[in-house]
Amino acid sequence: MADASPRTDTSTDADTEDRDLRFQNNLSQVLVASDGSDKSRDQKTLRRLAQNREAARKSRLRKKAYVQQLESSRMKLTQLEQELQRARQQGIFISSSGDQSQASGGGNGALAFDVEYARWLEENNRRINELRGAVNSHAGDGELRIIVEGIVAQYDDIFRIKGDAAKADVFHILSGMWKTPAERCFLWLGGFRSSELLKLLMNQLEPLTEQQILALNNLQQSSQQAEDSLSQGMEALQQSLAETLAGSLGPSGSSGNVANYMGQMAMAMGKLGTLEGFIRQADNLRQQTLQQMHRILTTRQSARALLAISDYFSRLRALSSLWLARPRE
Amino acid sequence: MDRIRDLASQKAAVIFTKSSCCMCHSTKALFYDLGASPAIHELDQDENGREMELALRVLGCNPIVPSVFIGGQFVGSTKDVISLHVDGSLKKMLINAKAIWF
What we know:
A: 78% helix; disordered N terminus
């Protein structure tokens, strides 16, 4: 009659007490069993059942506590994911594998581009380092040309990727949120200004022939003129959009005005659709300017130019990191 | 097509546009900036607009507007104009057609 059913639940200190009790009970049961009295056996049974109930209750409480901990750590995880997303958008690039954060349709396009851009940047850094190594080790023109051509082709890649991303989410590209804060300072139509970049490079590329200086000056001027023309087109677009939306203002209620309103909205939608074209032309300008610069310069000069451009953007990104990490009162 | 050719040969620089098109505005701005005074023809304000649009599409202009002609020759749309300007060809074409002098 000795009760020796094994306990399989995880024990705590409280349980140890229980077990001690049960052990003592078992012992006393063994000692008493020889008595053979039914009455005492019932008492022991009742006490055992009571202790079972107590243990079961404690087990349930422990399980409840465990599940509660699980729920709150799940919430904490979601919170962290959101913070990560926000931080990533602000320019602290944190690569993640198997990214499974939920995002709306538009958000997916933006996120997908951010990931592609980060990947492109990594590859770009690798190539730039390769170029730097080749330049520092006085590699021949042939070897330099291969690396330089590779980098120019890689720039073609990012313009194509941006073009696709602009189709999916033009406002994300326009916002520049995929760039770091300091880079965003100089944002023009979803990217950098080629004319400014050329200005920076002019001093870094000496010695230049007179022809080259002339050609580079012309390129800088043409680039600037094209930029200005696109800016003017954008201003015209803003103006037109504002007029369209303002035109739908007026006393509400009449059905004629509702039809008007919908018409104006349709027109405004059409205008928003042209934004993608402006981004595309701006990127086209960047691409053409880069290629023309490459044509004007010798291989070695192109190499120095690409290194200088990369250094400049690296500094901007470093500045962004410093800015984001600055101590605040 | 005849009307397009006709209008395109009337001035050294000719641009076909639409009044609602902001990219056309950009292209016009570039030409003005260069000192050229292109003739502007708005397709949506022209009674033959539809046929002219089709003719431009046949020519391969994409997008249809803005559509640029220099010295009577079809040049292209915004992308072509920007590319030609960046490599210096646009100015040369305008000078050859006597749309500008320097």
